[in-house]
Q: What sequence folds into this?
């Protein structure tokens, strides 16, 4: 899933700026599961922003002023336009929309509501999974040409600091990466796994340089499935 | 679910606000009390005719680990001058680790309060057992003393805690 982290309230306040009516929009999918932008986080962010704006609106030491009008609403999936229709009225009424979706959610909002000023409340961090409660780790770099079948199901693109295809490098120290002893050496993990599966012969095959055109290096990516598209009459 | 829990806190806040006039000048501290320790300790304090500060309003939780930051945040937003969470002694949680989790959540809440611009000390965690009526009185008195030193919350309106509909600008 997509892992994200909430921006600091200070940055959010800067993004919201002078807007008086703020709509915080949470997302019920990935960012709910990583506790960054679900209904609960949207409510907490909205309450925090209301309180902070009230405190900022009056002189220090004096009772706070009225502050901004901040509401929160959460959609099931911010990255699909059809889920956004239900909040059209709320978005229309707001001066600024603070999206607690990932970067895709923010852009889905912008594309669906071109009149709205939408700002991000999260930093979209990576594609990963929770390794324990409260800990998330990167697992996929969305390179567009999966090689997990060659590496025992452990991705060297996402998990090796150098994205090596024929590792490990000289920086592998006791199973850890030279960049940080807290980072596992992906190639050590790959070796250990293949060894445990009696499949070390997989590593005898040298991998040629990867075709990175399927990754970001080939520019923005798009998939078109003609078998799924609607005909012109249906659109 | 969080909405419903927050609703409970709101009711308590509203109830506190609805009392006679002197309440307006009095500090308002919401104490989230675990039913296995602090809530029973408060009860025991009552049976022993021990006085604890009238500033403290008790919210009954099944475990201090049930505390949701949003709940406490709503109380503070409504103008509560402080929130205290009282759980069992370390190692004595009826649900094993609820009090440890609560302490971490209070820490998280304090960080959030600092970001918001409120003093982090307005949220505090205490631990005691059901038999410690005197400790309950002492904890509440400590909290009241510390909040008195900080002064009333700047988020109060006209000296009173407010109902949710009045204060949060919803529907604007």
A:
């Amino acid at each position: 899933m997509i892992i994200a982290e909430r921006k600091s309230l200070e940055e959010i306040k800067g993004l919201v700026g002078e807007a008086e009516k703020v709509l915080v929009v949470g997302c019920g999918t990935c960012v709910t599961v990583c506790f960054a932008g679900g209904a609960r986080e949207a409510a907490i962010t909205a309450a925090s922003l209301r309180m902070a704006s009230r405190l900022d609106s009056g002189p220090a030491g004096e009772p706070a002023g009225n502050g901004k009008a901040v509401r929160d609403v959460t959609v099931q999936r911010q990255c699909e336009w059809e889920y956004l229709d239900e909040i059209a009225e709320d978005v229309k009424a707001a001066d600024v929309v603070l999206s607690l979706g990932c970067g895709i959610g923010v852009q889905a909002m912008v594309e669906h509501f071109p009149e709205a000023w939408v700002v991000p409340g999260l930093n979209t961090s990576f594609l990963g999974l929770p390794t324990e409660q409260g800990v998330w780790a990167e697992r996929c770099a969305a390179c567009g040409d999966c090689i997990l079948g060659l590496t025992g199901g452990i991705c060297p693109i996402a998990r090796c600091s150098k994205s090596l295809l024929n590792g490990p490098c000289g920086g592998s120290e006791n199973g850890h990466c030279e960049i940080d002893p807290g980072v596992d050496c992906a190639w050590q993990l790959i070796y250990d796994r293949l060894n445990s599966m009696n499949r070390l012969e997989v590593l005898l095959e040298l991998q040629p340089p990867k075709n990175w055109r399927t990754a970001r290096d080939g520019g923005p990516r798009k998939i078109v499935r003609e078998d799924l598209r609607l005909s012109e009459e249906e659109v | 679910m969080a909405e419903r829990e927050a609703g409970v806190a709101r009711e308590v806040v509203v109830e506190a606000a609805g009392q006679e006039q002197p309440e307006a000048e009095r500090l308002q501290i919401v104490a989230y009390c675990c039913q296995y320790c602090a809530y029973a300790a408060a009860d025991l304090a009552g049976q022993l005719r021990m006085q604890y500060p009238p500033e403290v309003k008790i919210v009954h939780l099944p475990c201090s680990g049930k505390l949701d930051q949003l709940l406490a945040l709503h109380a503070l937003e409504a103008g509560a001058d402080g929130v205290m969470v009282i759980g069992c002694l370390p190692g004595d949680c009826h649900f094993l680790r609820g009090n440890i989790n609560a302490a971490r959540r209070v820490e998280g809440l304090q960080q959030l309060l600092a970001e918001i611009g409120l003093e982090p000390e307005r949220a505090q965690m205490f631990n005691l057992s059901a038999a410690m009526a005197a400790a309950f009185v002492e904890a509440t008195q400590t909290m009241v003393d510390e909040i008195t030193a900080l002064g009333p919350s700047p988020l109060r309106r006209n000296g009173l805690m407010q109902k949710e509909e009045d204060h949060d600008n919803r529907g604007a």
